[in-house]
Design brief:
It is a single chain. Strands 7, 8, 9, 10, 11 and 12 form a 6-stranded antiparallel beta sheet that branches. The chain has a 4-stranded antiparallel beta sheet with strand order 1-6-2-3, covered by helices on one side. By secondary structure, it is an alpha+beta fold. About 35% of the residues lie in helices and about 25% in strands. Helix 2 runs antiparallel to helix 3 (about 65-75), helix 9 crosses helix 13 and helix 10 (about 290-300) crosses helix 11. The chain has 3 domains: about 20-90, 2-Layer Sandwich (Dna Ligase, domain 1), CATH 3.30.1490; about 95-215, ATP-grasp fold, B domain (D-amino Acid Aminotransferase, Chain A, domain 1); about 235-380, Succinyl-CoA synthetase domains (Rossmann fold).
């Protein structure tokens, strides 16, 4: 779960990381009052869970409270990469001498964490990383050892950061560990003209599986602000979550349903290898019922980007005839306008195929192998 910038800043403050004074509002008139309390001149920043706000016009300087109200009115309601701005944060501006980038991220492939830092932070950090990768230091962090004072100094030195940033690096590691985060990022971390080190922006992604340990990120938490979070979320992911489905929206054209995360991931790879892009990850689980199958199809067929759907099921706990019944149930309630390729194998596969044969829907076809089904789905999507 991603936090908003204002939430990340509150977390940072709790760990002794300095941030400029700020206030969050959802109405232009409130922005005027907040600017008065903050000293008049403020930076108005859109609160959305995506990058590129500055380049999209979602971060602006307001010279006085009246200008803050006008600027907030301009930013509220903006669409930034598909995210509607419903809140803005007003922060005291600072006189910046240097901008840096620092983050910790989980490196799943290596089974460790990675510290990423650069002496050239700011809006163009992605361009810096792409064109001059030597300007970005990547230092592995052993989770059993963590970021000690010595490790923090090593990271700062490798990235060319001033020595006084090491304290922030050590505190950010504590945020990562104690908040069960998968990512913590500050961009920019700045040194002001009077030598202070401040986090001007922050991003924190917390592990949703750890909510039982992190009570303040629960439904009753004022920090999470459920109403705003849900409004800013990907609509299909929200709809899938309401049905209890494990679903992630991707940017392709082949909708994919499978039983078991490993099988779904393999299916994504096979479809990509056949020249098409997966439109989603959807795992119906090891003991999915016909209703779960129907719900999954309903979500995927609601995605206008989907040109073809591939259902890849290996029956174990999930019997293939139950999956087939779910497909038939979905076909009875959803107007199918895109081709559906089904591969059933394993427990009760013959019965499942018979159920689909009996339904005889003109847009449903069965393929017996995973490779063949992926190839057929890719072919149909690319027509």
């Amino acid at each position: 779960m991603d936090l908003y910038e204002y939430q990340a800043r509150e977390v940072f403050k709790g760990y002794g990381i300095a941030v400029p004074d700020a206030a969050v509002v959802d109405h232009p008139r409130e922005a005027r009052h907040a600017a008065e309390l903050l000293g008049g001149r403020v930076v108005v920043k859109a609160q959305v869970k995506t990058g590129g706000r500055g380049k999209a016009g979602g971060v602006k300087l307001a010279a006085d409270p009246a200008a803050a109200e006008v600027t907030a009115r301009q930013i509220l309601g903006m669409d930034i990469k598909g995210h509607t701005v419903r809140r803005v944060m007003l922060a005291q501006p600072v006189d910046i001498q240097d901008e840096f980038y620092v983050s910790y991220v989980l490196d799943r492939a290596a089974g460790t964490f990675l510290a990423i830092a650069s002496a050239e932070g700011g809006m163009d950090i992605e361009e810096v990383a792409a064109t001059r990768p030597e300007a970005v230091a990547r230092i592995p962090v052993d989770p059993s050892e963590g970021v000690t004072e010595a490790k923090a100094a090593e990271i700062a030195s490798a990235a060319g950061l001033p020595a006084e940033t090491a304290d922030v690096l050590a505190r950010l590691w504590q945020v990562l560990v104690r908040e069960d985060a998968l990512l913590v990022e500050v961009n920019p971390l700045v040194r002001t003209v009077d030598g202070a080190i401040l986090a001007l922006d922050g991003k924190v992604t917390v592990d949703g599986n750890a909510r039982f340990r992190q009570a303040r990120w629960g439904e009753a938490s004022a920090v999470r602000d459920t109403a705003v979070h849900d409004a800013d979320a990907e609509p299909l992911e929200t709809a899938a979550a309401a049905k209890g489905l494990t679903y992630v929206k991707l940017d392709g054209e082949v909708g994919i349903i499978g039983n078991g995360a490993g099988l779904v991931m393999s299916t994504l790879d096979v479809v990509a290898g056949r020249g098409a892009r997966p439109a989603n990850f959807l795992d119906i689980g090891g003991g999915a019922s016909a209703q779960v199958m129907a719900d999954g199809l309903d979500v995927i067929l609601s995605d206008p980007d989907v040109k073809a759907v591939l259902v890849n099921v290996f029956g174990g706990i999930t019997a293939c005839d139950a999956v087939a019944e779910g497909i038939v149930r979905a076909l009875d309630s959803v107007h199918l306008t895109r081709p559906l390729v089904v591969r059933l194998d394993g427990n009760n596969a013959a019965r499942g195929r018979a159920v689909l044969d009996a339904r005889a829907h003109p847009l449903v076809e069965q393929v017996t192998t995973m490779d063949g089904a992926a190839a057929r789905a890719a072919e149909l999507a690319n027509r």
